[in-house]
Design a protein that fits this description.
- The chain has 172 residues and is mainly alpha-helical.
- It has a single domain, classed as 5'-nuclease (Rossmann fold, 3-Layer(aba) Sandwich).
- Helices cover 52% and strands 10% of the residues.
- The radius of gyration is 17 Å and the shape is globular.
């Protein structure tokens, strides 16, 4: 069974766009390191985020990484990313949810499979659990940064998939 470990950013943005329940639908349980819980409940976190983590749902598990300070994680990444990577690094079947570019690069060096918020939304759209255009519109209303080219590619892929599905469905 795949262990899904999340960093702060995907949780934060999925909450802000109203798609947090996509996580248990896609992955079941999600593991958060204590450092991520601290970031989500920080005084500077959006109020809806800190309220949510204060009453986290039962599909969230909180754990400490088993790693020591000597693990090969770059010091330039933040504490949440570092803890999530260390936690994921000690699992044999894992998926890391992380947006931070430096964190993703480190996860890739360590061979940790990972996706970000956009990958989660894409997976949800592929399973027809959400409208990707609507989710991306809501994401654009936050401070999430992404290239317009990547957004256009995702929307084109989604449009082609939707057309293909519509063509396969028989008329009523």
């Amino acid at each position: 069974m795949t262990v899904v470990v999340a960093d702060t950013s995907p949780i934060n943005y999925l909450l802000l766009i109203g798609e947090i329940n996509l996580l248990p639908r896609l992955y079941g349980e999600v593991v958060l390191p204590f450092e991520v819980v601290a970031e989500l409940s920080d005084k500077d976190a959006p109020p809806e985020v800190s309220r949510w983590i204060g009453a986290a749902p039962d599909w969230i598990r909180v754990r400490h990484p088993r790693a020591s300070e000597d693990d090969p994680v770059l010091p330039r990444i933040g504490p949440g990313e570092r803890a999530a990577i260390l936690l994921a690094h000690h699992e044999s079947d894992v998926l890391l949810l992380i947006d931070d570019a430096a964190g993703r690069a480190e996860a890739n060096k360590l061979g940790i499979p990972n996706i970000g918020t956009l990958g989660i939304l894409r997976a949800g759209a592929r399973r027809r659990l959400l409208s990707l255009p609507t989710a991306l519109e809501r994401l654009a209303e936050t401070n999430f940064r992404v290239s317009q080219r990547l957004l256009a590619d995702l929307l084109e892929e989604d449009s082609m998939r939707s057309r293909h599905v519509d063509e396969r469905e028989p008329d009523s």
